[in-house]
Write a structure and sequence with these properties.
about 240 residues; 8 strands
């Protein structure tokens, strides 16, 4: 707490970690519900909290305090062992700056921190002489970081940046202004979107377009192909729900 009080970025960093890890675990067990600010999860609410009496709230807080004290008493100094093992670990401030620079997305697949936990990776691994300087760090989801490990020095930062590539005058790049909507839900994800065909061959015919400007389908990265295939399934389900025929 003392460190966080003097370093606002620490508070923001650990707030993100809490929302993406503890909050999701509790939500999966039906104990809390996510609070949404648009598409962003801004926090969590305890299920049924508004129905609790003052006495029940005080009992719940006392129970949490008691469980915490029991845990501390049982573990003792062992709870700090991970810090001793992680001597030389990156500071929370530096990690936050890397994640913020990546806009809280994996710099390989583009997935958001709200969907999958992100980790800070050394582009050139420490064991191969890589430094802790921010220029040698990138944000990867835990899956891709586990795959990369310390076997190579692949820099994925340029890959994620290309997902925002657009070209002025391109009819497909500019088509995002008319994203299709079925049942009040816009058909879009982080890497692709759906529009209604203005000259449909058949009723409900739609076009699925990647957000990145590329010359052909074969220039797409695998995450973009995954995003397109996911929209195919979503659009099909939405159309069938709206028109069973």
């Amino acid at each position: 707490k003392a460190v966080a009080a003097h370093d606002p970025s620490q508070t923001e960093y650990y707030s993100e970690i809490t929302k993406n890890m503890v909050g999701k675990v509790l939500a999966n067990h039906g104990l809390v519900s996510p609070v949404k600010d648009g598409r962003i999860t801004s926090g969590f609410e305890l299920e049924g909290y508004e129905d609790l009496s003052r006495e029940e709230i005080e009992d719940l807080i006392a129970l949490c305090d008691r469980k915490r004290d029991e845990y501390l008493q049982a573990r003792g100094q062992k709870i700090w062992d991970h810090r001793r093992r992680s001597a030389g670990a990156l500071s929370g401030t530096l990690k936050y700056e890397v994640l913020k620079r990546a806009k809280f997305r994996c710099e390989l697949c583009g997935i958001e921190a709200a969907e999958k936990a992100l980790e800070v990776d050394h582009i050139i691994p420490r064991r191969h002489g890589g430094s802790d300087d921010i220029t040698n760090l990138q944000a990867l989801c835990f899956s891709h970081n586990a795959m990369k490990r310390d076997r190579d020095d692949t820099d994925f930062r340029g890959v994620a940046a290309t997902y925002d590539d657009r070209e002025t005058g391109c009819v497909f790049c500019e088509a995002g202004a008319r994203i299709a909507s079925i049942g009040g839900n816009e058909l879009e994800n982080r890497l692709a979107f759906v529009i209604e065909d203005r000259f449909p061959v058949t009723e409900k015919h739609m076009l699925i377009i990647p957000k990145r400007h590329v010359m052909s389908y074969f220039d797409l990265y695998q995450p973009e192909l995954n995003a397109i295939h996911a929209l195919v399934a979503t659009a099909r389900q939405s159309i069938q729900s709206a028109d069973a025929s």
